[in-house]
Structure formats: C-alpha cells, structure tokens
What we know:
By secondary structure, the protein is of the alpha+beta class. It has 3 domains: 8-75 and 124-150, Ribosomal Protein S5, domain 2 (2-Layer Sandwich); 78-118, no CATH class; 153-289, Butyryl-CoA Dehydrogenase, subunit A, domain 3 (Up-down Bundle). 62% of the residues lie in helices and 14% in strands. It contains 10 helices and 6 strands, in the order βββαβαβααβαααααα. It has helices at 45-57, 71-74, 82-97, 106-110, 128-178, 180-196, 204-217, 221-240, 245-265, 269-289, and strands at 8-16, 19-28, 33-38, 61-69, 78-80, 116-118. The strands form 2 sheets. A 4-stranded mixed beta sheet has the order 1-2-4-3. α5 packs antiparallel against α8. The protein is elongated and about 100 Å long.
Amino acid sequence: MSLASMxxxxxxxxxxESLTWTLEMRSVNGRSLDIKYRFPAGFEAVEKxxxxxxxxRFQRGQMNLTVSVGSAVAKAGVTLNKEVLEFYLEAxxxxxxxxxxxxxxxxxxxxxxxxxxxxxxxxxxxxxxAEAVLAADLTTLFDRLKEARAGEGRALEAILxxxxxxxxxxxxxxxxxxxxxxxxxxxxxxxxxxxxxxxxQDFEERVLQEAALLATRADVRExxxxxxxxxxxxxxxxxxxxAPGRKLDFLAQEFMREANTLCSKSxxxxxxxxxxxxxAVIDQFREQTQNVE
Length: 293
C-alpha cells in the first residue's frame, strides 16, 4: 500500500447554465482532518458535500476549499442596496461618536455582505440540478487532490526508505563495534588502576569484577536489537498500512531514544560517531514523517 502525503493542490472549473464557478483545494499537514470553506451566499451545499467526500478519502490534513463565482454572474450587472448600506452606517455611527471606531471607508462599506448585489443573483438560487452538477465537480476535485497527495506520497516513500537503509547500515556498523566495548573498558580500567596502585596484581580479581560491571552497564546490544526491530516495523508500516503517519512519527521517537542511549553508553569514539550519524538520519526521517498522512 502506497503512502499518501498530506500536501497537495487541486483546481477545477465548472458551471451550470449561466452560472460558472472555480473550485480550488489546498492541503497541508495537520494532526487531524480539518477543512475550512470559503464560498459565496447560496453555495452552502459545498460544505455538506465536501465533508462527506473528505471522510471517504482522507484521514488527516488541514484543507482549504475555496469556491469562486465566474464571469457569468458578473455580466448580469450589480446594484447598490441602499437599505443595507444605511443599516451599516447607522450601526457604526454610535461607535464613531463614542470614539470607539473610525469613519468607515468607501471600500470597506462596499465590501460588506449585502451592500453590493448581483442583479438576478443566481448564487442564491442553486436548484437541485445545479447542486448535482456542483457535487459532481466537487467529487472530481477531491479525487484530484487525492491523486496529488498520492503522488507526493510516492516521493516520500522513496525518501523514507532511503533513510531506513542508512539507519540499518549505522546499526550494523554499531554492532560490529559493540563487541569492542568490553575489552576497551577493561583496558581503560586496568590502566587507570595501574596509575593509582604500584602493584595491581593483587587486585586482579577485583579488576575483573569492576570491569565486568562497567561492561554490563555499557552493553549496547539490547539497544541495537531494539533498533533492528524498529527498522523492520517501519518497513511494515510503509508497505502495508493505510495512513501510517502517526505510527511512523511515534516510531521515529523510539529510534531517537535508542540512539541517545547508544551514544551515552559508548566507550570509544568510533561507536560514538556512529551513534551521532544515526541520530542525524533519524532526525531527517522524523521530519519527513510529519508529511505522511
């Protein structure tokens, strides 16, 4: 099953009889599925149809759906609704006299809802046939957005799997270095003890006990085994689960937790460098998971 991104864009133009419209939809990252609508009066059906279409196609993403009326309505001409304009002026006069507002500009007044009306305004008269055409266009719009997000998802999948391959190489390198931990700690402990004591032979058994204790605390094989398991799980999520974004993000946190422990337990520079390289790749991996649905 292919991944889907939460980023995408779709646009469609349509209409019914003399009425034309342009539908645009933008999608970005979001923790849940959330759609904001912008449409003129008379197009309230957009919200209901859009909500149903989205639930069947998407699980996450912040979306904006905009409906713009085309030139067919503009050609019908416009009129100034003086009654509505007078209402706004009267409502604002008390605020102006009290010093709580400034005198509104002409541009501001003309932009208020209802002040400018289209003659024979068809936007407020969407009949059943027009709504059916609009619903069909919305279906096409949502399908195109889904295709756009799927295309972005294919690119994301390649990037994420590339990061997983790099992480796996780091883990394998760390495994080959981990076996040197015990000997490195033992040599370091013995050297320091010889610096402090003139004759360390009598303390050989104690040296072995302390070295074994330190080596146990510094054993990173458990962390590396968990990292290997997490890598397998990440591949399974990418290849076989719909909308795995949340789980991949959580898994990235687990990757980082194990990598941090690996670095803190490291007893020599080569293993530390491998751990730091691993952390850098994990950080890139997690950044990309933020885009996955």
